[in-house]
What does this fold into?
Amino acid sequence: MDRALIQKAVDEARDEGANLVIWDERDTFSVEQEDIADLEIHDDHLRVKMQSGRVIVYVQFDKIYKLVVEKTGVRAGFGIASS
It folds into this structure.
Protein backbone atom coordinates (compact mmCIF):
# COMPACT_ATOMS: atom_id res chain seq x y z
CA MET A 1 0.00 0.00 0.00
CA ASP A 2 1.15 3.52 -0.75
CA ARG A 3 2.84 5.38 2.12
CA ALA A 4 0.88 8.60 1.43
CA LEU A 5 -2.44 6.74 1.71
CA ILE A 6 -1.36 5.14 4.98
CA GLN A 7 -0.30 8.56 6.30
CA LYS A 8 -3.71 9.96 5.36
CA ALA A 9 -5.55 7.21 7.28
CA VAL A 10 -3.29 7.62 10.33
CA ASP A 11 -3.75 11.40 10.31
CA GLU A 12 -7.52 11.04 10.05
CA ALA A 13 -7.59 8.58 12.97
CA ARG A 14 -5.47 10.96 15.07
CA ASP A 15 -7.58 14.00 14.17
CA GLU A 16 -10.89 12.22 14.84
CA GLY A 17 -9.78 10.43 18.01
CA ALA A 18 -10.69 7.19 16.25
CA ASN A 19 -9.31 3.66 16.11
CA LEU A 20 -7.36 2.42 13.10
CA VAL A 21 -8.18 -1.09 11.91
CA ILE A 22 -5.42 -2.73 9.86
CA TRP A 23 -5.82 -5.78 7.63
CA ASP A 24 -2.68 -7.51 6.42
CA GLU A 25 -2.13 -10.85 4.67
CA ARG A 26 -2.56 -12.89 7.83
CA ASP A 27 -4.38 -10.87 10.47
CA THR A 28 -6.68 -8.00 11.35
CA PHE A 29 -6.05 -5.82 14.38
CA SER A 30 -7.17 -2.51 15.84
CA VAL A 31 -4.92 0.26 17.00
CA GLU A 32 -6.96 1.87 19.77
CA GLN A 33 -7.16 5.67 19.94
CA GLU A 34 -4.86 5.81 22.97
CA ASP A 35 -2.19 3.91 20.99
CA ILE A 36 -2.40 6.05 17.82
CA ALA A 37 0.04 8.53 19.38
CA ASP A 38 2.61 5.70 19.53
CA LEU A 39 2.20 4.79 15.85
CA GLU A 40 5.25 5.59 13.72
CA ILE A 41 5.40 5.58 9.93
CA HIS A 42 8.78 4.57 8.54
CA ASP A 43 9.94 4.16 4.93
CA ASP A 44 8.44 0.71 4.42
CA HIS A 45 6.60 -0.23 7.61
CA LEU A 46 4.44 0.88 10.53
CA ARG A 47 5.62 0.50 14.12
CA VAL A 48 2.96 0.61 16.84
CA LYS A 49 3.44 0.42 20.62
CA MET A 50 0.31 -1.10 22.12
CA GLN A 51 -1.01 -2.18 25.51
CA SER A 52 0.91 0.45 27.47
CA GLY A 53 4.15 -0.37 25.65
CA ARG A 54 4.05 -4.10 26.45
CA VAL A 55 3.57 -4.99 22.78
CA ILE A 56 5.26 -3.53 19.69
CA VAL A 57 3.79 -4.42 16.31
CA TYR A 58 5.57 -3.99 12.97
CA VAL A 59 3.60 -4.15 9.71
CA GLN A 60 5.18 -3.86 6.27
CA PHE A 61 3.37 -1.50 3.90
CA ASP A 62 3.28 -4.08 1.11
CA LYS A 63 1.44 -6.53 3.41
CA ILE A 64 -1.38 -4.08 4.26
CA TYR A 65 -4.38 -4.42 2.00
CA LYS A 66 -7.01 -2.44 3.90
CA LEU A 67 -7.22 0.31 6.54
CA VAL A 68 -10.38 1.55 8.25
CA VAL A 69 -10.74 4.60 10.46
CA GLU A 70 -13.21 3.39 13.10
CA LYS A 71 -15.18 6.22 14.68
CA THR A 72 -17.32 5.73 17.80
CA GLY A 73 -17.19 1.94 17.63
CA VAL A 74 -18.74 1.71 14.16
CA ARG A 75 -16.67 0.85 11.13
CA ALA A 76 -17.19 4.19 9.45
CA GLY A 77 -14.49 6.16 7.72
CA PHE A 78 -13.05 4.48 4.67
CA GLY A 79 -11.46 1.26 3.52
CA ILE A 80 -8.39 1.31 1.33
CA ALA A 81 -7.47 -1.58 -0.92
CA SER A 82 -4.24 -1.78 -2.87
CA SER A 83 -4.20 -2.73 -6.53
